[in-house]
Amino acid sequence: MKQSFAIETKNLTKKFGAFTALSDLNLKIESGVIHGLLGPNGAGKTTAIKILCGLLRPTGGEAYIFGKKVPDRSILPQIGYMPQETALYVELSVHHNLALYAELYGMSRSRIAERELELLQFIALEKWRDEPVSNLSGGMKHRVSLACSMIHEPKLLFLDEPTVGVDPELRASFWEYFNALKLKGITIVLTTHYMDEAQHCDRIGLLRLGRLIAEGAPSEITRQTNTANLEDAFLALSRQEVKV
Amino acid sequence: MSIRRAFSVTKRIFRGLRNDKRTVGLMFIAPIIAMFIFGLAFSGDVKDVHVVVVNNDAGFQAPGMPVKVSISDQIIANFDEDVLKVDYLNSEEEGVQRVEKGGAYGLIVFPGNFTRDIYGKIQNPSLPISTTIRVRLDKSNVNVATTVTKAVSDAVLKTMNDTGLQAPVSVDASNAIFAKNAKLMDFFVPGIMAFVVFMLTTILTLISVVGERTSGNLERLQATPLRASEIVIGYAFAFSIIGMLQTIILLTIGVLAFNIMIVGNIFLAFLVIALLAVVSLSLGILLSSLANREAQAIQFLVIVLLPTFLLAGIFTPVEALPSWLRPLS
Questions:
Q1: CB-CB under 8 Å, A96 with B15
Q2: Domain B49-172 in CATH: superfamily?
Q3: What is the pTM of this model?
Q4: Which residues 63-82 in chain A show a CB within 8 A of chain B?
Q5: Does residue A191 sit within a domain?
Q6: Nearest alpha-carbon partner for A216 in A239, A233, A194
Q7: Interface residue A32 vs chain B (CB under 8 A)
Q8: How far is CA B109 from CA A149, B113, B132, in A?
Q9: Contact B8 A103 (CB under 8 A)
Q10: What is the number of domains present in chain A?
Q11: pLDDT by residue (tens digit) across A182-215?
C-alpha cells in the first residue's frame, strides 16, 4: 500500500518549545506528480520539508518516503533538497560546487561532466562555470543551488521556494523543466508563496499556521471555495478557519 | 563510512583555499614571521630546574685551621633555590643516566680535590692544577641550559665574595649530554612549528565549521549521504597535509636561514605534526559547537589558545611555571 505513495505523513507534528510549527499533517503524495505546498511565511512549509529530508526530527507522528520511515539514511541518495536560503560554498566555482555534491553521491567523473553540462544549460549559467559563486547575483546563486539538488538525478525532489528571485522568462523554463522531470516519473515537492505559480502544480496543499487547511488539485480547490483563483481561495479558507 | 566522500570534503577545502589567497598567505607566511620574531626576541625567566649534583670533593683542613672546610658545599648552598632544584648522586654515570632519561636538565660535577686544589692555587697560583666545576647539560633546551650555567657561576662568585677567597674556579659547560652545539633557534623551531600548526589548524577549523553552519552548508550536507564522521576525516586529511607543508617550510628556513640542527627521525616529527593537526582540529570542532557566529568563535580562541601557548612548555620550559599550574600544563 505505502509503496504507491512517494510520501506519506501521519499526524506529523513539530514543536519548537511552545511554538507549534507543524500540527497533525496528514499528506499523501503520489509518485510522479508535482506537489505544491502553499502558505504564508511561518505556515510550516519549510519545517515539513526539513522533516522529510531528515534534517529535523518530528515531535509527533510519522513520515514515510517510498515506504520507509524517516529519518532513514538509505533514502538519502534518492532525494534531492534545495534549501530556501542558498547554501553554497561561495569561494568555490559553480563547477566545483556541482562536482562536490556529485562526488558525495558517488557519481563517476564522466557522468558528472554530462550532468553538469545538462544542468548548466538548464539554469543558463554555462558561461559562469568557472566563476566563484561569490561573484554571482542572488538569482544566479539560487539557480546553482537548484542544480546542486538535482545533480545526482534523485527520484524525489524537495525544492524550497525554487523560483524566488528568478526572472519570469527563466521561471517559465523552470516549469517546463519540472514538467519534463515529472514525465520521467520524478516526484517534485515544492513550496511557493506565488499563488499564480501554484496553478502549474498537479496538487497543492494549503498550509496556514502549521495546519493543512486544504488539499487537492488547484482547480478542485477553487471550485470548492467558489473562487476565481488560488489567492482568493486561500483568503476564503483563512476566513473560514477564523470563524471555526 | 566512505573514504571517497571524506576525500570530497578534503578536496572542497583545498579548492576553497585556491580562491582564498589571504588564508593561504596566513598559513605560510605567519609561521615564518613567527619564527623570526620569536627566535630573535623571546626569552623568559627559568625556574625550578632539576639538576643533579655529584660532589666528589672530600673537603680540606688547611694547616692551622680548626675544622675541615668544603668550598663545594658552600657553593651548593649558594645555589639560587628558585632556579635550581638539586638532587645528589654519587657518580657521574648515574647523573648522566638521569639526564638522559629526562629526570634532570643538567649535571654539576665537583672534582675530588676541589677544596684542596683551591687552597693550593691560592698559595701558589702557578701550580698546574685546575679547579673546574664541570656542568654537563641537556642543551636541547638552550634557555634552561644557559640558566643552569649562569646559576652555577653566580653561586661560585657569591661564595668567593663570602669567604674572601681569590680562587681561580672556572665553570666548564662545554661537554653537553644532549645537543652539544645547540643554539636558541634549535630549541625554538620545533616549538614554533608545533604552535603554528596548532594555532592555525584550530582557528581555521573553528572558523570554517562555524561558517559551514551559518552558511547553511552543514545542514544542506546532512541531506546527502555524507556522514558527520566523513566530514571530520575530510578535514583531518586537509589540515594534516597543510600542517606537513608548514613543517617542511619551517624546517627548510630553519636549516637555511638559522642553521638549526636536526637530530632524530624527521619522519617521526611529521607524524607528530599530523597527530597534532588532528588534535587541534578536534579542539576546533569542539569549540565550534559553542559558537553561533564566526565573531564569537574568535573570542574562544583567546581563552583557549593563549593558555595553551603559555603552558605548553614550547617556549618556556614547564619548570618555569608555578608548581600548582604544572599539572594543567
A1: yes
A2: abc type-2 transporter like domain (3.40.1710.10)
A3: 0.70
A4: 73, 76-77, 79, 81
A5: yes
A6: A233
A7: no
A8: 75, 12, 9
A9: yes
A10: 1
A11: 999 999 999 987 888 888 999 999 998 999 999 9
